[in-house]
Amino acid sequence: MQRGFATGGTSSNFVKLVEVGPRDGLQNEKKVIPLATKIDLIERLAKTGLSTIEAGSFVAPKWVPQMANSSEILEHILQKKIQSPVPVSYSFLAPNTKGLQNAAALLAKNPDAYSTQNSPANIHEHINKPAVEMAVFAAATESFSQKNLNCDIKTSLERFKEVIQDAKGMGMRVRAYISVVLGCPFEGYDVDPHRVAEIATDLLESGADEISLGDTTGMGTAPRTSALLRSLSAAGLRTEDIAMHFHDTYGQALVNTAVSLEHGVRIFDSSVGGLGGCPYSPGATGNVATENMVYFMETLGMDTGVDLDAVADIGAWISGELGRPNDSTVGKAVLGARARDAATSKAKL
Ligand SMILES: CC(C)(COP(=O)([O-])OP(=O)([O-])OC[C@H]1O[C@@H](n2cnc3c(N)ncnc32)[C@H](O)[C@@H]1OP(=O)([O-])[O-])[C@@H](O)C(=O)NCCC(=O)NCCSC(=O)C[C@@](C)(O)CC(=O)[O-]
């Protein structure tokens, strides 16, 4: 369907979306999701123009059982050529060196199957070989760090330094999350932006390539998002190193996205069908839906390179597979408009 927004990508209006559905989106589902469904989801997403897909998590299966088959997912990515119109980087979480080593063992078995930061910058090379990146995840509050990682922030940063340096040594790109930056389920709204800046600086100094700031609880508001980004900037952080990760629990995700765009942020996390929730954040709902994010960027004349109709189809499909409602308002609207158009064309025949 023609949506009639200004389009046309230039490097200045490009916004990178990081699809977190297969990891953040699925990790909290109670029902066991078959491996084949997870792989199908990743393969479908890879065809939409998304360039980064968070595919799994090398965490303790006792803690997050739904992610227990992340090794099989990584193996599939390495062994089968997933078709994609653009080079895709597949990202996996690691909470400690054990998680990284588990991923590294699979990479070592398939050394020619993936590209690294050291690979030649040849687009065909990258299209033929997926990139694999790792992600570590800290918290902005002590309570959340204890619940999510079973250690305090200082200990987590020491562990992450090792994980980041080892992963970088293997040529991998590393992203670092900081959760609960705009509100904590245990400590409330009072999250200190200066502390967020300190943690982000520590992670960047350890070698992380990008910091994703998680509004885990969706408690972020426009003024508080702006205040946080001002604090980070005052502390010397560069917007090009920052990604924003909004959950839409209070319906503020796109407002906060607009504020972040004004501050120069150009990387946003989202989840197809609005899947998600954090197992250690009671009451947390899904990430902002990828469909909503793509549509929103299109209305602003920004270019994500992502096919909105294709992600709308995937959102409806995966919601059906999981037996849950499709949480993307845009996804439902796109499919509704398509059904109306089809009915109108049929009536004209
Ligand atoms: C960090 C630990 C492991 C500490 O947990 P612990 O219990 O303190 O760890 P431990 O070192 O004492 O080990 C306990 C057991 O786990 C095993 N183990 C230990 N590490 C691993 C590993 N990597 N892979 C596989 N197994 C592992 C270890 O071998 C041992 O096994 P046992 O001897 O009992 O059989 C645990 O707290 C953990 O896995 N936490 C992860 C929690 C998580 O995944 N949360 C969700 C991701 S964060 C998120 O969703 C937020 C985000 C990123 O989306 C952004 C936002 O919205 O905020």
TrEMBL record:
Pathway(s) it belongs to: Metabolic intermediate metabolism; (S)-3-hydroxy-3-methylglutaryl-CoA degradation; acetoacetate from (S)-3-hydroxy-3-methylglutaryl-CoA: step 1/1
GO biological process, one term: ketone body biosynthetic process
Keyword Metal-binding: yes
Source organism, top-level taxon: Eukaryota
E.C. numbers: 4.1.3.4
Domain (Pyruvate carboxyltransferase) ranges: 15-312
Substrates-to-products reaction catalysed: (3S)-3-hydroxy-3-methylglutaryl-CoA = acetoacetate + acetyl-CoA
Family: Belongs to the HMG-CoA lyase family.
NCBIfam families linked to this entry: PRK05692.1
Protein name (record): hydroxymethylglutaryl-CoA lyase
Organism: Emericellopsis cladophorae
